[in-house]
Recover the amino acids of this structure.
């Protein structure tokens, strides 16, 4: 483990190895990732009951801090917190205090003073949740709901849960991530998770202009030709073409992109016949994926959404558990001293 | 100790007690629910002994424990599985050992999230006393008084046996 990985591990975990913040998958080992998936399995069962609620976070306050807009991620986090019986506050920061000139730190300290127990943070700057956990409010559990181009760890974990459900495990799996890897925080987290959990091969398939420099160093192979790249795949993960982040002429046209890198029925036919199709949403039909594929029998896109709630319940309850047990240990330490 | 805790005799007691109370209350087709892990093994045994057709349910009470704010989440939680609706059913809830009563409180809260049962009968193999909540088993295999440093644990499932543990305090 590198020094960087070790520091990320120690920020995210308590002294006895429990999760207390969830910022990135860097520094988290296979055992912990598997614990998250197992815990999420139990929450899936809760989601199938008449009363889809457990009392774990009763009396705790979770604040959704979205510095960048998002519908699906925010609503699944909100639903996850409510199913854990927490009180939830949704703050759309882009339209509130910061526009009156209050600094990020001041906003957060105010929220902490309202006895918040957890911040779910989405921010356009890479590293913002990390900064908050390290320097601003270390006693509040911080969950990263996507930061810049850096990471989106709950999305990656819900994808892992979906893969495990359909494939039984990760051993021997060949997985491709297709499309706009350059602007994707999801792709980075997915590559990390797939490698840690033991997938046989992770490929990225994209034009050179949509790949970050040194992409192989993340732990994947690169294929520019999708026809070749689809061969033998067990899982294909399509990325959304991030139109709003597209600066400069990275692509000739959407139509050209679809012809080369869109997932059509023809291209899917080149993969393993039981290959599953995933997409983090929202889908651009006809831009990165054909409607017949998105709605077809190999698509598990809506399972991903359902699993998103369970994964978020797992991560939130584990991080809150780590925070409370750490607080108790400190208290006992003080009493004994 | 081993002589006191002949497993077959304990199970005979439990079965006889269950048959009695079912007859008393007119319960003919109860739904069995075992609390993980020991209670599930016992539910399996009692289902066969009582000749019940329906599969038993398994409860993992980790999400309902009252000590989350002290020790956090149990990392080894498994999904509960109730292969029937609890709505209006007569339920037999089984656990291996009852002591404080907190596990049973958590289990009953969880059961109610699946629906409103008509009744619940509580059966425990061993009752250690030391209750902290007003919850008592309807049927029990044996009441045991242990020294404060002693604990018992059901091991199994094949064969089921009771292990006496010394906590060394």
């Amino acid at each position: 483990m590198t020094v960087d990985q070790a520091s990320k591990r120690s920020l995210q975990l308590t002294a006895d190895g429990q999760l207390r913040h969830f910022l990135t998958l860097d520094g988290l080992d296979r055992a912990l990732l598997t614990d998250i998936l197992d815990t999420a399995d139990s929450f899936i069962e809760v989601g199938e009951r008449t009363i889809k609620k457990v009392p774990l976070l009763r009396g705790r306050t979770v604040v959704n801090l979205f510095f960048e807009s998002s519908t699906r991620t925010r609503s699944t986090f909100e639903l996850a917190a409510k199913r854990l019986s927490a009180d939830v506050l949704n703050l759309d920061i882009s339209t509130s205090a910061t526009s009156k000139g209050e600094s990020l730190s001041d906003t957060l300290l105010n929220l902490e003073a309202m006895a918040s127990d957890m911040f779910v943070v989405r921010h356009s700057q890479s590293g913002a949740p990390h900064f908050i956990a390290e320097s601003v409010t270390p006693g509040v559990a911080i969950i990263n709901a996507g930061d810049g181009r850096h990471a989106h760890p709950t999305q990656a974990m819900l994808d892992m849960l979906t893969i495990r459900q359909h494939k039984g495990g990760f051993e021997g799996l060949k997985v491709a991530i297709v499309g706009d890897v350059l602007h994707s925080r999801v792709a980075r987290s997915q590559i990390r998770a797939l490698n840690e959990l033991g997938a046989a091969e992770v490929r990225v398939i994209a034009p050179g202009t949509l790949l970050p420099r040194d992409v192989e160093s993340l732990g994947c192979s690169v294929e520019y030709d999708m026809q070749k790249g689809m061969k033998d795949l067990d899982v294909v993960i399509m990325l959304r073409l991030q139109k709003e982040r597209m600066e400069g002429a990275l692509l000739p046209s959407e139509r050209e992109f679809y012809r080369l890198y869109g997932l059509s029925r023809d291209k899917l036919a080149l993969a393993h016949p039981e290959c599953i199709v995933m997409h983090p949403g929202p889908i651009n039909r006809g831009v990165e994926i054909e409607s017949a594929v998105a709605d077809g029998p190999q698509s598990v896109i809506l399972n991903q959404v359902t699993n998103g709630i369970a994964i978020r319940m797992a991560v939130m309850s584990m991080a809150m558990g780590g925070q409370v047990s750490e607080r108790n240990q400190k208290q006992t330490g003080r009493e004994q001293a | 100790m081993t002589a006191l805790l002949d497993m077959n005799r304990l199970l005979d007691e439990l079965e006889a007690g269950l048959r009695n109370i079912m007859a008393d209350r007119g319960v003919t087709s109860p739904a069995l629910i075992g609390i993980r892990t020991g209670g599930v093994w016992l539910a399996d045994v009692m289902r066969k002994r009582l000749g019940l057709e329906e599969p038993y349910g398994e409860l993992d009470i980790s999400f309902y424990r009252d000590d989350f704010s002290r020790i956090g989440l149990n990392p080894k939680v498994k999904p509960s599985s109730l292969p029937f609706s609890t709505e209006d059913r007569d339920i037999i809830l089984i656990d291996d050992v009852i002591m404080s009563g907190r596990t049973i409180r958590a289990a009953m809260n969880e059961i109610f999230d699946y629906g409103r049962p008509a009744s619940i009968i509580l059966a425990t193999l061993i009752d250690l006393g030391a209750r902290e909540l007003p919850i008592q088993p309807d049927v029990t295999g044996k009441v045991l008084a242990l020294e404060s440093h002693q604990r018992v644990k059901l091991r199994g499932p094949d064969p089921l046996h009771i292990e006496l543990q010394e906590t060394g305090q």
